[in-house]
Specification:
By secondary structure, the chain is mainly alpha-helical. Helix content is 44%, strand content 8%. The termini are far apart.
């Protein structure tokens, strides 16, 4: 028997997942911390590198260091922060990746 799919998050719930300090916006550290948790969950051997066997099948897989992914998330934050205020509001957070 298959489990029912999880209900989609409302925009406010989505923001709440990133917003660790509850101030209604997401700073760079919160953004990176939330996303790197997914990296850490996939890093089964806890060596700080997503080895090929820990990655989804796809093109051009190669070992991915945690620090490199952390930096990539920081760069993504900067692209999403359209107004440059150092925080993502709900609209910036939910916008398609830039």
């Amino acid at each position: 028997m298959l489990a029912a799919p999880a209900a989609a998050l409302s925009p406010a719930e989505h923001l709440d997942r990133f917003d660790a300090n509850g101030d209604g916006r997401v700073d760079r550290a919160e953004f990176q911390a939330y996303l790197i948790a997914g990296f850490d969950a996939r890093d089964r051997n806890r060596n700080g590198i997503l080895d090929i066997d820990e990655q989804p099948a796809g093109h051009a897989r190669k070992p991915l260091p945690r620090q490199q992914q952390w930096q990539a998330y920081g760069e993504q934050f900067e692209r999403q922060d359209v107004d440059g205020d150092g925080h993502l509001d709900l609209f910036e957070l939910l916008a398609p990746p830039r």
